Each structure stands twice: as C-alpha cells, then as structure tokens.
C-alpha cells in the first residue's frame, strides 16, 4: 500500500499520470487545468518521467497531437477546460470515432459568454454525445485513482476508446486533500503495457481516417455505439481489480442513505459531498431523503439507474448546466427519458444549481429539495437566480 | 444562500467622475478610461500600464477621439485593456481578436480599429489569423504586448519564449526558439512594423500615432516586463529591474535587417521602426477589383439590388 499525503488534487493527478509512465503529454494552458500540466512538465524536465511534453499552440493542436501519438501506440494524456474543450471539439469526435485510446483530465469550467473561469458542467455536456467514456469524481482520491483506471480501460483492446475524467474546477482541482498514493509495483500489477489493436507502423502499412461514404457511415456509427455501450464490463472489472489492490471499491452508481428513501437527490461530481451533508440534515429532521451519485456518465448505466430510481417517489436532479431551449437540463432530460417506459416511475424534478461557479452549500441543497417537492409545474428551475 | 451577491448598480459615469475628482482630481487619461474599473488587475511592475498609457497618448497625438476608435482584444492580462478603455471595445475569445476586428474594420471603414493583445493570443492560438490579415492588408493596427510568456494563466511557455528561457512549463529551459515577430509580420505583408520596449515610451507613442495614420495592416511589438510570469523564473528581478534589463539590452536600429531581430535570452534586443511602406489595402483592392467590375456589369447593391 502506498503512502498517504496531503497534496493538491491537480498535483496528485499529475503524479498519477507520471506513475502510468505516459509517453506523450500535449496540452495548452487554461485555468483551472494549468497545475496538472505544469507539474507534468516538471516531471519530464527532472527526468522522473520519460515522456514527450508538447507545449502546443492551441487545444485544437493538443487533441490533434494526441490522436497522432495514440495512433502510433504511445500512451497519451491531455488536460483542458471549457473554452479549450470547445476549441478541441472537432478532434474530440475524431479521437473517439477513430477508437484512439487516451486520457483527458477535464477541469470542469463554465463556457463563455460571459467569460467565466469558475466551475460548472457545461463544458463536458457539450461533448456528451461524442462517444468518449466520461467519468465524474467526487473527491481527490477518486481523481487520483481514476487516472490509473482510465488508462487501463481506454487501452483495453476490447474498449479502445478515449476516457474523459471530469474534475470540478477549483472545487476539486485546487484543494489540498489527503490522498493515498500508489507505488510502482501496484501500477505495474494494475496497468498492462499499451498494446493497440492496430497502429501506424512502417512495417505494416495502414490508412486511418478514410472517407465514410453513405453506405458505410451508419455502420461505423453503430459500431462505435456498440463499442461504447459494451465497455461497461471492462470499466467495472477495472474497479473490481482496483478494490483488491487498494481496498477502495468504486461503482458506476453509488448511493448514500438511499435504501428506503422516498426522495432521492441525484448528483454528479464534487456537489455529491455537499449533498451527503444535506441528506444527513434532512434525515435528522425525519425526512426520508437519500442520494444517488452517478460516477459513470458515459456509457450511462441504464439498468442500475432504472432500478434505483423506480424505488423513489421523487427524484431531485441537481443539474450543473443548462440546455437552452431544450425540454430540460441535460441530466434531468436523460433521467426522464430513461424512466418513461417504466411501469413505476418517480416524479423527476430539475434544479439547475451552481452554474458559473455560484457556490452551493448543504443548506442550498436542502432548500432545493423542499422547493422541488412543493412545485406544481415540473419545469426546470435555475436555483438562486435573481430577477 | 450564504454567499453575499454583489448588488447590481447601474453605471453612472457622472457620479463616478465626481467621486474621482473628490478623491484625487481628474487624471488627464480619465476620459479615455473607465475610472470605475480602476484599480486594474495587473501586478506591480507589470509593463501593461505603460503600453496602455502610450496607446492613449498615441491617440491623443493623432487627434483621435474615443468615438473615432475601437479596440479589440483577446484573452490574457493584455486582453483586459478592452475593459479599461472607455470606448467601443470588444473582449473576444482567446486568439480571435483579429477576425473580429476584421469584420469591424470592413463594416466601418472609417473607424480606427486597433487590436491590442498579448503575444500568446496573437501568435499561439491566433497565429493563423495574424498572417492572413497581414497578407490581405486589412486596415488594422495590431499592438502586440510581448512579455515572452502566457502571463494570465501562470507563466507558461509561449511561441515568443526565447530558446533556453525558463517558464512554468519549461522549468529547465525552453527547447524551442521563439518567433522573430517583426520578421514574421513583414513576411506576411504588414506595411508598418516597429518594436519598442516599455523603456521607450516616447518612441512607442510615436510609432502608435504614426501607425494610426496608415491605411493597411500595421504591427507594433511592445516588449513589456512580466515580473510574475517571466521575470521571476529567468532571474530578471522585479518589474523595475526587468526594465533596466531592457534598457541595457536594447539597441535602436531603425530600418534594421529583420533577419537580425531575433530575441535570445541575455542578448541584445534590436528595437526601432523597421518597415514603413504602402500598398493597397484590402478595401481598396476589393472595391477596385471586385465591386467595380460588378458595377460595370450593372450589378451590385447600388444598382437597385436589395440590401
Ligand atoms: C481556447 C482557450 N484556451 C486557453 C485559454 C486560457 N488562456 C487565457 S489567457 C491565455 C494566455 C495569455 O497569454 P498572452 O496572450 O501572451 O497574454 P498575457 O496574459 O501574457 O498578457 C491562455 C492560454 C483560453 N482562455 N481559451
Ligand atoms: S502576470 Fe505578468 S503580464 Fe500579467 S499582470 Fe502580472 S506582470 Fe502583468
């Protein structure tokens, strides 16, 4: 077992990437991602990590470099946020459609305009249909562990897809937490070397990125969808193996005091820790409230979610982004769609909270639950908005 | 909610000016600035204030009022000028100041449009726009503040960081050479090219006012200390000491051969007005070649086509 250290989450994540012996890091600086990449550049400069660090001229180039390096079989990492992801978006779709393994650390930040450097989930929701595996983290230890897990899953020949680790900007990236480190032996036992199914190599010539004519495009999309949805067993196995190594067991969906709860709060990311405090408060008041925390956003663990949500009378989704002009915010929309054909389905309420870095306290969560339970219209609400 | 949200108070310029006069009298630059926005966010010793003052002075010298000018900036410490100037300004996304300004300059040909942005914004993420606007000779004045790094995000390596210089992402020295900006601007087609440091405010003001009188794409590089991002890792000391460094390193050579203006760490920096020529700008070419031909054929808006 590794040692436990008090460390900034971004630095710990970079240490984990270093332990994975990554080959190529390509990134362009953007707040609040910078500390991850700066620490990696230090590891490379000091010789502790034998990797190519490419300080590219934009995020579009960063993701392009990552595609190139992954295509030749190099273990590849990048990190970005908001505007950076938006600029990358073209190549984000390419990376997953081309089935190129790599890991992205996304320090979640609100999209412009107005310009904001603070946390919400609008950036990751923008690419939710891009075919990447997307996981959320609640605390520093989860972020650290997710790095090893993500490389393992991404590079598994049965999966061969890029993985995006969502880390709430500032709320998680910049906090100092006690994190239990892995040692080299553990990583060696857990993460096999990257052996891609196919790669660009002069001895075995291969063309990638070819045209998809109308008679093949739909099949390619279906194949991608199948690959993504059938990656779940590998993802779960990765967490099972990690539990044997570290004693920490992760799953796609987790709950807190939810067994008999009539009302379920539904959340993703660091707001989950805030919500557990709110649940305790409401339980003290004798209210039957629990929490569902979703770690695996893509592929969505539909079976698990249906089972969990069906047991409740009300579900209050804390959405961390808005879908302007849509029926509802992204997470609520999916949960409603998921439950539509179920014989027994809860009322699903939408509370859009903590956008653009607006602080959400446990009391706010309590208020949101009360507001949701007393509402009549089942529309979405932007919590705390003035005017 | 626990957090106290800021009251939304409508901006009242008169009241603001009165308050300032009461405190310390009206500064001559106040009519160019939004006094309510001051104090600014820049670090002590940062060169950005000098460049901003020089720009205002250049405008004044040219006899331009705030109504005749627009300033477009990208993202970065430099980009913040758009928020401080009391005129039509636009703070674009990172790297996109030039295309935004192109639209502005073409739609309002009488406006003096200045792109005021950082070296990273203009030459990393926005480098492509820079060379194409210069090639087209769009009537834009580019004022590039070069502090040799990405200041705002914490001093990372930029495409202007000299070989071997240290930054937060090149802790043991940069393995890549930086761009020679005047050479690049000239090669891409700029009709006016100058470089000064913040130690040369008079010359900088002169170049700014001179460029404001040109019709076409002009480029001025203003080298500025960034004690926080660049000075510290390269042991250049405080902002003042970095100024001293630029004083000692600079060599004025107007009209210098631009192959010689590359910047290396702890070597001389050639400054001066290097290029001052003229050629038809984008609008002139476009009106002369495309629009005139269409009109000759009886087409185009003037001939009764719907606007
Ligand atoms: C698409 C995108 N990528 C990255 C960033 C983060 N970012 C903000 S400012 C900046 C660099 C600014 O450097 P420079 O243009 O040299 O200006 P300075 O701060 O040095 O004045 C970066 C990378 C961003 N805002 N948008
Ligand atoms: S970081 Fe550098 S450029 Fe930015 S305000 Fe500070 S000194 Fe100026």
Automatic annotation (TrEMBL), chain A:
GO biological process assignments: carboxylic acid metabolic process; response to oxidative stress
Presence of the UniProt keyword Oxidoreductase in the record: yes
Organism name: Desulfomonile tiedjei
SUPFAM superfamilies listed in its UniProt record: Thiamin diphosphate-binding fold (THDP-binding), TK C-terminal domain-like
Protein's name according to its UniProt entry: Pyruvate ferredoxin oxidoreductase
Entry-linked Gene3D superfamilies: 3.40.50.920, 3.40.50.970
Keywords: Oxidoreductase, Pyruvate
Domain Pyruvate:ferredoxin oxidoreductase core: 261-365
Pfam families: PFOR_II (PF17147), POR_N (PF01855)
Automatic annotation (TrEMBL), chain B:
A Pfam family reported for this protein in Swiss-Prot or TrEMBL: TPP_enzyme_C
GO process annotations (BP): cellular respiration; small molecule metabolic process
Residue ranges of domain Thiamine pyrophosphate enzyme TPP-binding in the record: 82-221
Gene Ontology MF annotations: oxidoreductase activity, acting on the aldehyde or oxo group of donors, iron-sulfur protein as acceptor; thiamine pyrophosphate binding
Keywords: Oxidoreductase
Record bears the keyword Oxidoreductase: yes
Entry protein name: 2-oxoacid:ferredoxin oxidoreductase subunit beta
Species of origin: Desulfomonile tiedjei
